[in-house]
Amino acid sequence: MSTTLQQATPARLHHLHIVSAEPRQLADFYRKQLDLVDVTSPDGRIVLTGPGRAVEISDSLSGRQPCSCFVVDTEADLAALRQRLVARNVTCEPADSVLYRPGAFMIRDPQGRCVSFGLTAGSPSRDGLPARLQHTVFQTTELERVVAFYTEAVGYAISDEVVSDDGKTMVVFLRSDDEHHSLAFFQGSQNVWDHHCYETNEWNDIRDWGDRFARAEVPIFFGPGRHGPGDNLFFMVTDPDGNRLEFSAELVRVGVGDTPGVWPHNERTLNSWGRAWVRT
Ligand SMILES: [Fe+2]
After folding, report:
1. Cβ contact 138:113 at 8 Å
2. Domains in the chain, ordered, with CATH?
3. How far is the CA of 35 from the centre of ligand 1 (A)?
């Protein structure tokens, strides 16, 4: 059995490259609501960074789903990961971003989603409410195929699965370090971005984020509640493009080799406090 990212080259989500028909309007939302400031990018792309979070926004990314941009800890880890991917016939292309040091690379999953790996270029410390970018989630029409790619080729490990009454896998949570998931896929009728999540330090931070969105008259879309898989407290809001942002606390950690959990496909699994947003 081959090693996992968690064992060999732990990776964490660092930033997202979002595509938008209205990049300036979207950037205004992220600057104001997420305490982000502009970083100059030579290609004119909008690049925003803040405390533990960063985003790139452009109208020219191929495809409509964002690129998920991960970092590893060392040059040696990055080289080892690239070697692993090349050995599995995964094409690695350069990933240029001012948020990465030189040498970052991107790959595409079997449905064309972009994922990149690199070393962080670092950014000056910024003031703002605590919440680090932590995971991103997609809906897919081919759950089994994409999960096989991310586990077998790339090295993500399955932390939990949600399975329907008739035995169909509906959701898979994948980890790339000790945290329960940095990436997840829901079986759906379309291939679309589902949401992205910012992990806070504690429940009181969730209160503060809720109050911030209340002042901006951005209503809660889903939650507050607690997820079954991951056991994290959460709520979700949407940005002006309709992309969903989650704010979370208390996400659990999972050890190397822990047996994946299996959860029933019902509202209680997705929100033990009450009603859930069930994807179709
Ligand atoms: Fe989430």
Report:
1. yes
2. 5-118 (3.10.180.10), 132-270 (3.10.180.10)
3. 21
Q: How many CB atoms lie within 10 A of CB 211?
A: 11
* Average pLDDT score over the chain: 95
The CA 83 to ligand 1 mean position distance, Å, reads: 30
The share of the chain scoring above pLDDT 90, in percent, equals 90
Instruction: In whole angstroms, give the CA distance from residue 270 to residue 243.
Output: 19
Question: What are the tens digits of pLDDT across the range 120-167?
Answer: 998 766 789 999 999 999 999 999 999 999 999 999 999 999 999 999
For residues 49-71, one letter each, b for 16 or more C-beta atoms within 10 angstroms of the residue's C-beta and e for the rest, the string is: bbbbbbbbbbeebeeebbbbbbb
User: How many whole angstroms from 176 Cα to the centroid of ligand 1?
Assistant: 15
Q: Does residue 239 contact residue 253 with C-beta atoms inside 8 Å? A: no
- Residue corresponding to tokens 């040498």: 103
How much distance in Å is there from the Cα of 64 to the middle of ligand 1?
20
Q: State in Å: Cα 87 to ligand 1 middle.
A: 31
Choose among 99, 11, 121, 95: nearest CA to 48: 99
